[in-house]
Design goal:
Blueprint (H helix, E strand, L loop, with lengths): L10 H24 L3 H31 L2 H6 L1 H20 L5 H30 L6 H23 L4 E4 L2 E4 L5 H24 L10 H12 L10 H23 L7 H31 L3 H16 L5
């Protein structure tokens, strides 16, 4: 009897969306940066930034919809649905009240939380494909996988935070942690050790893991280990993460509609409505509301966007980390 594929759509499509395309794009970006057309490509990347923002914003909108669409959904994540938004809104209010004293630290927290959330999703996707293949990680295997995945995130943070200069996010300057250089070296060693342990454990297991289970961790390694070295590539990482979530969220939406009795012929229209709703949520959350906040508080649109982006992502991503 032929075993069914663990893929949500097909092995090729899943592999590309779950990180394969991002790995290939890294190679293309590095080649472009070494060529004569790097400057022209860099200027064209301003248009790509719109796509990155829209896709990542749609991912947050889709997350919000799944969290707040019903009382049952909210009951699954009571902390995220109630207490976390209250705490985040307090941070937003403080950021607008004291833009120089509070806002830089609020942005800093958001920028540290985001890649942590990416790591949680990466582990979850790997576990998802293992389970869809009829197997699962042993506790020690999962701990090694988590140590490796979260290690790539911590390594990227440590490498960036050894600098003593200030960084900038949409016009808000925020300080670095000023870590000693040995911290980055320690995280590199720990991440390599965790990755080696994970591979050793996987090679010893009886039931083989599907190839798709390895794609998200491999992609995150590229995102956070090699990715920061490419000025063309690294700003695209939020888009890759958002595409992963939207792909799974779309699949779950289709499955739920089928359970409700919708025919297979309704999938294209349902998918179009779902995509349109996610994009509409992006426009509301990341364009309209920041514009209103900017007008109401007398701050710049970029400042309001930075604060509201941090608030939205910190609130909704708590349910998927």
């Amino acid at each position: 009897m032929r075993k069914s594929s663990p893929a949500l759509v097909s092995p090729a499509v899943d592999a590309l969306v779950m990180g394969g395309a991002s790995i290939l794009l890294f190679g293309a970006c590095r080649l472009a940066e070494r060529g004569a057309g790097a400057a022209a490509l860099s200027s064209a990347w301003d248009g790509v930034a719109v796509v990155v923002a829209a896709l990542n914003g749609a991912h947050f909108a889709a997350t919000s919809w799944r969290l707040y669409r019903s009382r049952e959904a909210m009951a699954r994540f009571p902390l995220t649905a109630a207490l976390v938004p209250a705490a985040v809104l307090a941070g937003v209010a403080a950021s607008f009240a004291w833009p120089l004293a509070v806002a830089p630290h609020f942005v800093k927290l958001f920028l540290l939380w985001s890649p942590y959330h990416y790591s949680g999703q990466t582990v979850g996707l790997s576990v998802l494909y293992a389970r869809r293949a009829g197997t699962d990680y042993a506790p020690l295997e999962r701990r090694a996988l988590s140590a490796f995945v979260f290690g790539t995130f911590l390594l990227s943070v440590a490498r960036a935070e050894v600098q003593l200069n200030r960084f900038d996010y949409l016009g808000i300057a925020y300080p670095s942690l000023g870590l000693p250089p040995w911290v980055a070296t320690a995280f590199l060693a720990a991440t390599a050790l965790a990755g080696t342990a994970f591979l050793a454990l996987v090679l010893r297991r009886r039931a083989a893991l599907p190839a798709l289970a390895f794609v998200p961790p491999a992609a995150q390694l590229v995102w956070f280990f090699w990715g920061p070295s490419s000025a063309l590539y690294y700003p695209l990482v939020p888009m890759f993460h958002g595409a992963q979530y939207l792909f799974v969220s779309w699949f779950l939406h289709v499955q739920e509609r089928r359970q409700e009795g919708a025919p297979a012929s309704a999938v294209p229209l349902d998918s179009a409505r779902w995509a349109g709703g996610s994009l509409a949520g992006y426009v509301l959350l990341f364009l309209a509301l920041p514009k209103l906040l900017s007008a109401a508080t007398g701050t710049s649109f970029l400042f309001a966007t930075a604060i509201f982006t941090g608030a939205s992502s910190s609130t909704t991503s708590s349910s998927t980390a």
